[in-house]
Amino acid sequence: MNSLWTVMSFTMRTKLRNKAFLITTAVLAILLVVVGNLPTLLSKLDSDKATKVGYVQGVHDELIQGLTAFYAGQEKPQVQLIGGASEDALKDSLEDGDIKGFVTFADNPTVGFPDATYHAKSSLNSGTAQSITVGLQVVKNQIVLKELNPSEEQLKLLTATVTVSQEQVRFTNDAGKTPEEEGTAIGLTYVLIILLFMAVMITGQLIATEITAEKSSRVMEIIVTSVSPLKQMFGKILGTFIVGIVQMVVLVGALVLNLAQQNNLDALKDMGVDLGAIDPKLIAFAVFFYLTGFFLYATLFAAVGSIVSRTEDLGQAILPITMLTLAGFYIAVFGISQPESSVVTICSYVPFFAPFLMFLRIGLTEPSVWEVLLSVGILLASIIVIGWISAKIYRTGVLMYGKRPSLKELFKAMKAYKV
Amino acid sequence: MSVLTVDNIVKNYGDKRAVNQLSFEVQEGEIYGLLGANGAGKTTTMRMVLGLILPDEGDIRYRGKAYSKEQLSMLGYLPEERGMYPKLKVSDQIIYLAELRGMSRKDADKNLKYWLERFQVPEYYNKKVEELSKGNQQKIQFIAAVIHKPKIVIMDEAFSGLDPVNVELLKSTVKELRDEGTSIVFSTHRMEHVEELCRNITIMHRSNPVLQGSIKDIKKKFPQERIVLASDGAIEGLDGISGVKQVVRHEHGGYELKVDSPYAGQKILQHALAQGPITRFEIMEPTLNEIFIKTVGEHNE
Q1: Please, what are the averages of pLDDT over each run of 10 residues along chain B (301 residues)?
Q2: Domain that residue B35 falls in
Q3: Which listed site, A176, A258, A320, B88, has its alpha carbon 20 to 30 Å from B162?
Q4: Does residue A132 register a pLDDT over 60?
């Protein structure tokens, strides 16, 4: 136990003193502070200034009047209409930047209402065009209604919007999630899956790199004569794990502290994200799956790191594990839109994918308790089995030098070393 | 009681036999030489002594006890391939390695300072290993092997890559350790070091121990067939004496003769004295270098 702690504290100390590590963390933290304040910044940028849109004076005056009235009625007008003498004059002022775009109309006899075209420097900014479409739709309705002259009641019925509200069915006693909660859950699940993936990949590779570096610098020979390889491996994994957690706390803390500022919360609420609606159970599951995912992959990375003698060969050697994590990650990303699909369900029992996919299912659907337990059980059992196999590979691998051994050579060596 | 007993150990790697029925004993305060050409099985033997791998047959005992975790702290290891963390400070890694061997941080720090002082390089305490020259890295490596005052030290190619001054420094340190009672298993290709330091040796060849015993006894088994002779003037007719096989004249004066038996020496001396005063006459015992080449070479054929 004592030497395990020595290895752990050494791993942590060297990592935390590493300049590159500190700088990366600081840069990431600053980045996340910016991201954390993004909601406020975005709402500031989305400022109340109306987009200036030109029109040709004297043509289709009734439409322009209707549009002007429509925008005048808005709390924050999105569009400010500016008259121009002709299309060419409008083009000139568009070039000068006086207006952002302009509308022209062309009669459409089959419909009986003119088609409009929005001219702008870029066709990407479709927000203004959409706003004009909505405005024109209203104008058209008003013109038609004026001709029909309906009663007040008919008018009221016509303008009333149909409401369709959504509610997820829950089979437990809890209330179902509202769409807002559902949206928050999807967002949160997405963010957490990305975090999970990154944490597992980064820390896993860190472990593999360090072990290979120890091997290639031959410190390993001294270390394995001082402490049992198993203790060394788990000391390294645990040490890196704690460093990883510290880093995560710093980074997530930087994000959450800034997001939790009242102005950011308000801005988020305007966007339909309510941080207060986050289910604490989901966070607990996120932590749990982070832990299991980390240990599952960390032991694998350690085993692979131990059989490679040179850091140059490491990238190739860890490729299979990288692919495995990538596969799990992508199934999860695609599964966000279809969390009920059978691919997601089946893969959530595969230990390598379970940390991503079972978490996804818990976040977005309602898996029954036995499903969660089965998946977690398989996951825990495989962590033990894989940890055991990895430890064996590690014990053999650290003593093998030269080219990367094939599986057959590895088994032979394991037999010879009697591990 | 011997500190380290290696009893008839055998190690196979697949179909290949790496060490075949090797036995030896190391007493307290003894430096034991383990010699052999590259690939003879020295490193495998050392790894078994260190407990990294287990022998297939036979056993290794430390003060009469079998290998266990407790033995780890009484072992020290200086590997053939030098290994340190290049990016770490000397103090950080030496203290770490000492801690792994069960030392407290404070003691490790104190010992490290003592050893750095001893090697006249106290300024390396805060330096990164990659900033040091190869020879100085070697000194640090040496400190790592002995800092925890081990009872048994395994040294694989201890003095390779060092300049003569530093070789002397390390050699005297090794002798000091020996005099303090440390048992050392020592492997090198430099036979003059073995002759100077070791009492008993094993020469291994292709996994087999081919020559074992004290250096004195081993030398007795090999005939003395070299004579060194020097005088102020030239000595004529040396190759005419019966028993002389070869005469080599050195540039700086003096002769080296190969003879078929040491008895030829008397005749040579008489012959030489008749021609004038002799400044040097010596019947040389075979050097370990010659013995090694002869032994390994013979078995090679």
Answers
A1: 87 82 90 87 87 84 81 83 84 90 89 90 89 86 90 87 86 91 89 88 88 86 81 77 80 80 80 82 82 76 49
A2: 4-219
A3: B88
A4: yes
d(CA A203, CA A209): 10
Residue B106's domain is classified under what CATH number? 3.40.50.300
The answer to whether the predicted template modeling score (pTM) of the entire model surpasses 0.90 is no
* CA-based max dimension of chain A: 97
Which of A43, A319, A101, A360 has the alpha carbon at shortest distance from A205?
A319
User: Are B243 and B225 a contacting pair, CB within 8 Å?
Assistant: no
* Contact (CB<8Å) B93/A219: yes
Q: Say which CATH number the domain at B267 has.
A: 3.30.70.980
Does domain A51-159 sit in CATH 3.40.640.10? no
Residues B242 and B263 in one domain: yes
- Would you list which residues of chain A are within 8 Å, Cβ to Cβ, of chain B? 2-3, 6-7, 10, 13-14, 214, 217-228, 399, 412-413, 416-418
Q: Considering the domain boundaries, does residue B291 fall inside one?
A: no
Question: Of the candidates B117, B104, B188, which has an alpha carbon nearest to the alpha carbon of residue B149?
Answer: B104
Of B84, B86, B88, the CB nearest to A14: B88
Distance (Å) from the alpha carbon of B237 to chain A's nearest alpha carbon: 58
B159 and B252 share a domain?
Answer: no
Distance CA A276, CA A188 (A): 12
Helix and strand tally (H, E) in chain B?
9, 13
Q: Scanning every residue of chain A, which has its alpha carbon at the shortest distance from the alpha carbon of B142?
A: A222
φ/ψ bin of B253: left (φ > 0), alpha (ψ from -120 to 50), beta (otherwise): left
Q: Report CB contact under 8 Å: B93, A220.
A: no
Rounded to whole angstroms, how far apart are CA atoms B279 and B301? 41
